[in-house]
Amino acid sequence: MNTALGRRYRYPSATFRLLTKRFRPGCSGGPRLPFLPAGLLLLSCLFISFVAVPDDAAVPANEAPQFTLTYRPDGFALSSYVSLESREVDFKQEPDFGDHPVVRGAIPTGTGPAEFIGFAWDQADDVLYVDTNQNLDLTDEADQPYDSTRSLVGNKFRGIRVTRDQEGISIPYVLDLEFMGTWLCEVTVTSGWRTEAEIGGIPYVIELVDNLDGSLGEGDSLHVSRWEISSAEKDRTLQAVASSPFSADIGGIPEFIAAEGVTHSIQKGFVQTSDGAAIQITLHPADGSLGELSIQGEHIQELVLGKNNRPSVLYLSGNPIRVPAGTYSVHSATLEGGWTTDLPQSGQAALVQVEGSATLRVGGPLKQDVSVSRSGNTLTLEYIVTGAGGEVYRQPEATLDPPQFAVYRGETCVATGQFEYG
Q: Could you tell me the residue ranges of all domains in the chain?
């Protein structure tokens, strides 16, 4: 199930109309939409700085660690979109909707035609019925219907609890459904699984969200971060693309994890415990045809290396690392301050041969640039930030002040403003 449709962001840009009228001076004021004739532009942009964070002391891992992630009903967000025009569920039993307009649809829980959770949205009463027990009967559900709350884009229904049985394990989920008219619905899994554990002697927070199919892998979201970073951000929400680089639109959970120079394969699955369903992760030392890869760059907080257009290695710490032979590129990266790559990346690649060595450049120092394009009497400025390997980063939404710009004609400032996010 795709987790990020419609969630990508284009780089911040500002658009101006070119008119043949004189622009009044006064660049010291607030942001304006400058009207000016075409000509040479000198752009002065905001520069970026980072504060280095000292490395923690760590002990290399010598064993295969095993972690148990426990269920949490909120604090996560893994989203997908469901077309309301592609499929209408034929329920065996329904409430009496009378002559009310009703939108019926299906939330996929797998790839098979019978793998879905049906729902019916009564538009007149603005209530939602969900077939949480998946028996095509909307009249036997407890605590229904759900009432909506208005959102910026449509009608939103929160806190829908669903339990799916997978190989004898009852797996709980909490969902939000947001209807954007009668043609599209955003389904967000707001529950997930979490633990704090040491990898290579360094404390991490491990979080994972399943996409409703009960099988951990493609379409799911994994987030691993240093404990001191996570504890300061414990109230944040995992966003499918904006905050979590390991989501379905890049292929799912990586195969390997590298910490303090030791690379492990990731074995994961649901298990039944005395407290209910849990996720168990075991890290096995990687073996076979390995080579050495050096990561060259600064201020890297999270990094996923891609191989064959899929996420392959979750890099945490240590340099160099030993990885299976192959060609690696930057699949996703997050730097200190929240700067993240757009997905997928097509920058520098490194070929790792058996018992050979290679270098992959990623992260800081960052380079700023502004591209200018013209279409008719419209001039578009695009603010671009690239990393050491040519990968493109985007600014954290609503966390930093927008980059500023100034437009000069000769030595005279004729316009100022700021780039918009989106």
A: 13-48+366-418, 66-75+191-361, 78-189
| Ramachandran area for residue 6 (φ above 0: left; ψ -120 to 50: alpha; else beta) | left
Parallel, antiparallel or unpaired: strands 412-418 and 116-122:
unpaired
Residue 363: alpha-carbon gap to chain centroid: 18
Q: Please name which of 225, 217, 235, 159 lies closest in space to residue 190, comparing C-alpha atoms.
A: 159
Confidence of residue 246 (pLDDT cuts 50, 70, 90): very low
Summarize pLDDT for 316-332 with one digit per residue, the tens.
888 999 999 999 999 88
Query: Taking a C-beta distance cutoff of 8 angstroms, is the pair 11, 28 a contact?
Result: no
In the three-class reduction of DSSP (H, G, I as helix; E, B as strand; rest coil), residue 184 is classed as: strand
Show Cβ contacts of residue 240 under 8 Å, excluding neighbours closer than 6 positions.
3, 4, 7, 77, 78, 79, 221, 247, 248, 249
- Omega before 203 within 30 of 0, i.e. cis: no
Helices (H), strands (E): how many in the chain?
A: 1, 31
* CB atoms inside a 10 Å sphere around CB 399: 9
- Count other Cβ atoms within 10 Å, centred on residue 108: 20
Which helix (H) or strand (E) covers residue 232, if one does? helix 227-232
Give the H/E segment covering residue 72: strand 66-72
H/E run at residue 242: none
Report pLDDT for 342: 64
Question: For residue 396, is pLDDT > 80?
Answer: no
User: For residue 231, is pLDDT > 80?
Assistant: no
Residue at 255: amino acid letter: E
Give CA angle at 341 (302, 308), nearest 5°: 80
Q: Mean pLDDT, to the nearest integer, of 182-210?
A: 92
**10 Å Cβ neighbour count for 159?**
12
